[in-house]
Design goal:
single chain; alpha/beta; Rossmann fold; six-stranded mixed beta sheet; 8 helices
């Protein structure tokens, strides 16, 4: 990344877009403190990343992160032990919404079931910043509506969600801000509603414009 400067607005859903290999996942990992940037500074509410701000960040990666031989209930208990803002009530509300039982073993779940558990664990941390890396990966089109409904329903007013996805059309109507990367740089940073109202374009239209030179 040569020029990756951007700000995340509080209470909004920000989508980071770009072709494969542009570094979208690396950006989220850097914000979460899992990857150290070669240069530059990441500030969370004005502070450099440190142990004190980790409860402000929930990172939901595109890979499985659970202990496979724990049940969902045991996974929740593990999270409650380590995250001070863990919201057990929210976790079980979302579990019911996704039609899952807490006695199910993680290893017995389908790929879609595991993805649901990841989303639940991410949101139930009650973090100020929720980072979602390709949350629809491996989820069939009919189930994605559930995920989108979850994002909208369980996001509180002071939270910020940062999402990377290839399923742009799926999240078109819930995204507030969009950041497009190309060749390691931020090439566009815009408000999705203003794009529609002023330019009459969708996010997909803008992506085509960037990568096809239209």
């Amino acid at each position: 990344m040569d020029d990756a400067s951007f700000n995340i607005e509080e209470g909004k859903i920000t989508c980071i877009l770009g072709v494969n290999g542009v570094g979208k996942s690396t950006i989220l990992k850097s914000i979460a403190g899992l990857v150290k940037p070669d240069s530059g500074t990441i500030l969370i509410d004005g502070e450099k990343i440190n142990s004190k701000i980790y409860n402000k960040i929930a990172f939901v990666p595109d890979v499985d992160i659970h202990f496979p031989h724990l049940s969902i209930k045991e996974s929740f208990a593990f999270m409650k032990e380590f995250y001070k803002n863990w919201d057990e009530e929210k976790a079980y509300q979302m579990l019911k919404m996704f039609n899952l039982s807490d006695d199910k073993m993680i290893c017995e779940l389908s790929k879609g079931g595991k993805a649901r558990v990841k989303i639940i664990i991410g949101f139930a941390q009650n973090a100020k910043y929720i980072l979602l890396d390709e949350p629809f990966s491996g989820i069939d089109i009919f189930k994605r509506e559930e995920f989108i409904k979850t994002i909208v329903e369980y996001m509180s007013g002071d939270q910020s969600i940062i999402i990377t996805t290839h399923e742009i059309a799926e999240i078109e109507n819930i995204v507030d801000e969009v950041i497009i990367f190309d060749e390691g740089k931020v090439v566009f940073n815009f408000n999705a509603q203003e794009l529609r109202q002023i330019e009459g374009k969708s996010i997909v239209d803008k992506m085509r414009e960037v990568y096809r030179g239209e």
